[in-house]
Amino acid sequence: NAGVTQTPKFRVLKTGQSMTLLCAQDMNHEYMYWYRQDPGMGLRLIHYSVGEGTTAKGEVPDGYNVSRLKKQNFLLGLESAAPSQTSVYFCASSWGTWTGLNIQYFGAGTRLSVL
Amino acid sequence: AQSVTQLGSHVSVSEGALVLLRCNYSSSVPPYLFWYVQYPNQGLQLLLKYTSAATLVKGINGFEAEFKKSETSFHLTKPSAHMSDAAEYFCAVTRNYGQNFVFGPGTRLSVLP
Lengths: 115, 113
Known about the structure:
By secondary structure, chain A is mainly beta. Chain A has strands at residues 4-7, 10-13, 19-25, 31-37, 43-49, 56-57, 65-67, 73-78, 87-94, 105-106, 110-114.
């Protein structure tokens, strides 16, 4: 049971390049989330999804797009990377509000540097 | 809007000493509160959560936290620090128990031999 898997683990981009971060979970969770972590700022929610085919904006959505075509996958896209997007990105998943057990399970993170 | 404050970005304790990590929240309605731990180069792991049942919540690895509504606090404690407790700790709050988690800035705990 892998839990939440993020690929890639590391990536260096040049300004203006695009890339997609993949998050996969094997726990049949309904909810999935993308966060970015920056020093002294904790985790900030970028986008989230409450089910297959649905996405919603979080606290810092600008410059990012997401898709949830399959329940187990949640993709985060950067169309034109900027140095301000240098960060560590975390994906998380959870069951959902109705179960009363909405614990988030996190992946190991993706370190992205934009030069 | 909800917010979370963690007093002290870095806390150092000696091995065997009491660990106290502070968390205060602002919320217009009773919140759900969480403590997560992050070890170096890893994702976050849930330590414990408060969901309006008992105000004293016990978590993994000997940690516990007490919800005090009058102080809007949810401080994390452990009676005796171990070297393996060195990590970053995040307090988080959500109002509707599913979406819009708000994380605090984190407190890095160092344990000195």
